[in-house]
Write a structure and sequence with these properties.
Strand order of the largest sheet: 1-3-2
Number of helices: 5
Structural class: alpha+beta
Bound molecules: zinc ion
Order of helices and strands: HHEHHEEEEHE
Largest sheet: 3 strands, antiparallel
Number of strands: 6
Distance between the termini: 27 Å
Radius of gyration: 17 Å
Length: 156
């Protein structure tokens, strides 16, 4: 789905659930769903204020909840004391690296992890359903080295 289509999908979700479709809700959806980043509620507030469209924090939190319920966005907890949100997109399951210095979040996919976690689960008599991995570390940029792969500066 393109950026516009996902915002339309959110509009349809609100209508189907008898939720008011407001310009502010759609603006919040647009910020989150059209971004490649993992945004905190504060990031969304700053982005909207920068656009000259400040939105109350309570409205942002409520709309983020609705975005998660609609399945269009995913909630992430990287143990930072606040939640982050990313567009669900069409991307398969992925893991995250989080820089403990600048807060940068980098995504990666590794099929071997799926196989490995299946084996570990089986060894313990579990039927594996899903897993979640967060690698904390210091990114290349914070170590004075050019980064590799895709990376998004999630905390400016
Ligand atoms: Zn960093
Ligand atoms: Zn992600």
């Amino acid at each position: 789905m393109s950026g516009r289509e996902v915002v339309d999908a959110f509009r349809a979700y609100l209508r189907a659930h008898n939720q008011p479709v407001t310009a502010q809700r759609l603006a919040i959806a647009e910020v989150v769903l059209r971004s490649d980043r993992h945004l905190s509620a504060e990031d969304v507030a700053v982005e909207l204020a920068t656009r000259g469209d400040p939105v109350a924090t309570a409205t942002i939190y409520r709309t983020l909840e609705l975005l998660v319920k609609s399945g269009l966005a995913m909630e992430r907890d990287f143990g930072e004391g606040f939640r982050r949100f990313e567009a669900a997109r069409d991307t398969p399951h992925h893991e995250h690296l989080v820089c403990t210095v600048c807060g940068r979040v980098v995504e990666f996919r590794e099929e071997r992890l799926d196989r490995m976690t299946t084996l570990i689960a089986e060894e313990h008599g579990f039927a594996r359903q899903r897993h979640r991995l967060i690698i904390f570390g210091v990114c290349g940029e914070c170590r004075g080295q050019p980064g590799t792969g895709q990376s998004y500066p999630d905390s400016a």
